[in-house]
């Protein structure tokens, strides 16, 4: 059993404070390439990743709601966009799989990621020029974590609180 992988998964935390250090485009391409390996129906890959570095755009996105403020602090923002027209029945699950592959691979190479609830935020879609038929799934802040930043400890439900056997009862 690979306990190190289980520890890796349990220790990942959202990061909302970053160093003023750029993230190389080749590294971003590698992370997206890893994301393209996520499980998805018929290998249709119904997603796009918008890489955002422009300070004005990050500032506009950071004002979407209180939980989005860290977008301005990160050297890079990533918008993850679903394409229902590419895979009508499974695009949502497929896109979330790819997003998690991206997030976990970023963590694996020492980057921090903050996840912003931006599902179908019309203001964000307008800022980013996302077509009406595409779906903004999430916005991610991305960068090298500020060593002074201490994420809140995570508490989770026990397995007994979420397991059902055989059927819903």
TrEMBL record:
Superkingdom to which the source organism belongs: Archaea
Pinpoint the Nitroreductase domain residues: 10-64, 74-144
Q: Which residues cross the membrane?
A: 98-118
Give the Pfam families listed for this entry.
Nitroreductase
Entry keyword set: Membrane, Oxidoreductase, Transmembrane, Transmembrane helix
Q: Listed GO molecular functions? A: oxidoreductase activity
Q: Which Gene3D superfamilies match?
A: NADH Oxidase
State the similarity comment. Belongs to the nitroreductase family.
PANTHER family given for it?
NAD(P)H NITROREDUCTASE YDGI-RELATED, NADH DEHYDROGENASE_NAD(P)H NITROREDUCTASE XCC3605-RELATED
The protein here is known as: NADH-quinone oxidoreductase subunit E
Tell me the organism: Acidianus ambivalens
Q: Recall the taxonomic lineage recorded for the source organism.
A: Archaea, Thermoproteota, Thermoprotei, Sulfolobales, Sulfolobaceae
